[in-house]
Amino acid sequence: MSAITNHLPTSELQALDAAHHMHPFSTQNDFNTRGARVITSARGCYLHDSDGVEILDAMAGLWCVNIGYGREELAEAAARQMRELPYYNTFFMTTHVPVIALAAKLADLAPGDLNHVFFASSGSEANDTNIRMVRSYWAEKGQPERDVIIGRWNGYHGSSMGSASLGGMVGMHAQGGLPIPGIAHIGQPNWWAEGGEMTAEAFGLARAQELEAKILEIGADRVGAFIAEPVQGAGGVIVAPDSYWPEVQRIVDKYGILLIADEVICGFGRTGHWFGSQAMNIRPHIMTIAKGLSSGYQPIGGSIVCDEVAAVLGACEFNHGYTYSGHPVACAVALENLRILEEEQIVERVHDVTGPYLKAQFESLADHPMVGEVKIVGMMGSLALTPDKASRAAFAAETGTVGYMVRERCFANNLIMRHVGDRMIISPPLVISESEIDLLIARARKSLDEGMAAVKAAGLWEAG
Ligand SMILES: *Cc1c(COP(=O)(O)O)cnc(C)c1O
Asked: Is 355 a pocket residue for ligand 1 (Cβ < 6 Å)?
């Protein structure tokens, strides 16, 4: 048995990649001028590329490799399941053991009466499920006009037509005629960029109250649900001020709309709790899950639904499902991942030990001349870059220019730290050790130093 091994020199792999592989969220022609980095293997928190370089992955892939790379147990679980039952569906009055075990385990882990799971293969698919589920729920309750779902600008809920509509990424909406009908958006609780003269707490309250204003604008009898990430991930690790979530919960309760917590990043320990909803103390009716559910070892996602919504939906035929909903191999791998998270007390360790350590080290970057706000919850954090901390100014250059320059330095320093606009973000594997955190911070600081030098050399050290 062997994996697909690399027989070609890096430059040839890069040329074939540029010629034939269309990359997500990329400008394809960029790959013609500069080859993609070819990742060949990974262990723990480290990636290895085709030139033999070791890279510290402070993004856990795309926020997903919670238990770290290279866990044999998950490979064994997949191989075992493939031999026993590689595929079967759960349509037409059938089921199988891995999907039963995983659904029951998730019901056990999820808070409150979130006891029912509809499976998908990704977060995008799960959020598409949620749109149809919310609308079917209200139709079944005799209120079919309650079909509007409110999301947030700069929220991220996936890349399919439905999930990208729920999200508030204007660059995505601009391509392909989004949002689909029946989706509205309110502002995000990003105090650093949008808070103006308000205190963070006053701003958080104001942004939550936009939800009430939007409900009243649309009509309380027209709104079915509000969807939000407990901590915005792809939007730049935006942590809402403390005043925000209690007010959102109050409004959701007052108008009796469904709350969907998109836990695709926050779930499975990322915030130092099993779910971000617990970290933010909110009570969702539906949680979207994916990413850390399998630590990315298999594509799997889903919606965890509360008793009442499941009971209402249970009375009608829900005309929805994916060929790979509850895929047995993905379920077996997810179960093994959850076993490891639980038995090795990884979430507790993030909460009690490594999370606080990372927070202290990450916050020490606030003394860097280019770093304004530092935000971190558990193992997801962000740095706002600025030429002027006091005024929270943006750079005169186009948004993202400076962030990109710093990310290039991270790349050169063998650290995967992403930029979203001019925020630098991290989301390392939850198993990162204290000494690896030290290395992360040292490489981040070096990259910030070099990035700042490059920004100054390019004449971009100027408030916009
Ligand atoms: C990544 C992400 C999604 C989409 O998940 P995919 O598996 O990429 O489809 C949805 N919501 C959030 C919060 C995400 O971070």
From this structure: no
